[in-house]
Structure of Phospholipid/glycerol acyltransferase domain-containing protein:
Amino acid sequence: MAGKSLPFESLLSFFSRILLRRLRKSPHLHRKVSINTTQAKLRKYPSLSQRSVDQVVSKNQTLIFDMEGSLLKSSSMFPYFMLVAFEASGIFRALLLLLMYPIMCLVDEEMSLSIMVMVCFFGIKEKSFRAGRAVLPKFFLEDVGLEGFGVLMRGGKKVGVSDFPRVMVESFLKEYLEIDVVVGRELKTFYGYYLGLMQDKKKSSGLVFDEIFGTHEDRLMMGNNVIGIGSFNKPMDHHLFSHCKDIYYVSEADKRSWQYLTRDKYPKPLIFHDGRLVLKPTPLNSLAVFMWDPFGFFLAIIRGIIGVALPYRVGGPLLALLGLRLNLSRPNSMPSSTTNNNQNGQQQKKKKGVLYVCNHRTLLDPLYLSAALCTPITAITYSLSRLSEILSPIKTVRFTRDRVKDANMMEKLLSQGDLIVCPEGTTCREPYLLRFSPLFAEMSDQIVPVAMDAHVSMFYGTTAGGLKCLDPLFFLMNPHPYYTVRLLDTVAGASSPLSLSTCKNQNAEHEASKFKIANHVQEELGKALGFECTKLTRKDKYLILAGNEGIVKHQ
């Protein structure tokens, strides 16, 4: 009987040792930093008066804060490493990270962090890692607590300290929250590749010590103007906090009562971001994604076959049964194909198609408009993968990026039928409209603006740094992808289409007119969708997200 109970006793002893080890590392038992006991806790912001907060932090003070403990509402690091694994390392590493989650729950925080870094970063090329700038800022911003952010913004020079690798948090803190100095864990590299190992905390922060505190004379002048903000549930063992006059703590109870920082309060608007995952990949969300993937893949294939092989009047009801949704609204009167008259007033036989101008949400925009109107429409695009071009059920044509050639090509296509163009030149996920190229304003007397929006719950159907040929697949893998198509009232275009000769002899008045028309169409679409108009371009997006100018190779 004693022999049978031995495995149970060993297991109980194992868990007891782990529990005791975690208790010994508790921040309540180990506080190596000397703090002012009368101000030992930073209470939630609403409980402090404006005067009290100003007394705690002011513009002439240097503020050192722990990012996970005093800025983010959630203290879990797993979702952000899962984003790195899924977006930068591949789906198999993401699955491995999820499978190792139970083990990480049993070990201490430092060992758990080391496991996540090894799984996510080992073998990744340093120069090609862009998830820290293109993917993670969106999810970090959505997790910022309003009250913690409000206190943080009252400081003068702000120093962010994090247990995350610096490459994961630096862009978020510096570019979006305007933090002056970021101190994170440095990763070891070998010939330009990450080894999945971290340097010591003291060595990582020593690289920026002089940037924070300056020379010895600067530190003497600074005096006691350094304030620290940390968390009760996290040990303040970073040596930078030993230079603080006072350290204020945030409890988990306070953080639970915080509100999330709303989009309109972002110091810098989030317009561009990349990555496939829509949901924050917590352990449960990650499990749901991996359980859905096999079924979603086959569902997307079936949806794609029906959409390509069957007419919309037949395939539409089938696609609706499979979870696809399309909502169409249009004005009472719609323009039809127009005819041109010669100088004698005699009607020419050749008709001119309708020019549809829409904002760009996914590569499927032209397909959804064509399906909504139950008529084939030629789509002209700035970039399209070769695979998407082959599988497209409607005719697609590429811009040559030569203004004269593109104008003549659009003129020819309009003489053959209806045409759809997305003058932004690239997709934008957030509620913003990029600058409209004015070329379309020269092509037709009647322009139909089309306001489009795509709604997804699991995967984004666009990418800047990944394979664009997989964009439609990821969109169709969503459980219930939803599209809204709204046709607006017709807008008058230029007085006449431009030929090659007129393109070379435009007067200043006509040049100003086409830009005015383009801006007007952008404004109308912005009002219809509730989006904000910007002057950013396709080039701006790709330089931020992919480090190139957005020239897509055939894939």
User: Anything to note?
Assistant: The radius of gyration is 29 Å. Residues 288-333+351-546 form a domain with the Glycerol-3-phosphate (1)-acyltransferase fold (CATH 3.40.1130). The chain has two domains: 36-47+57-265, 288-333+351-546.
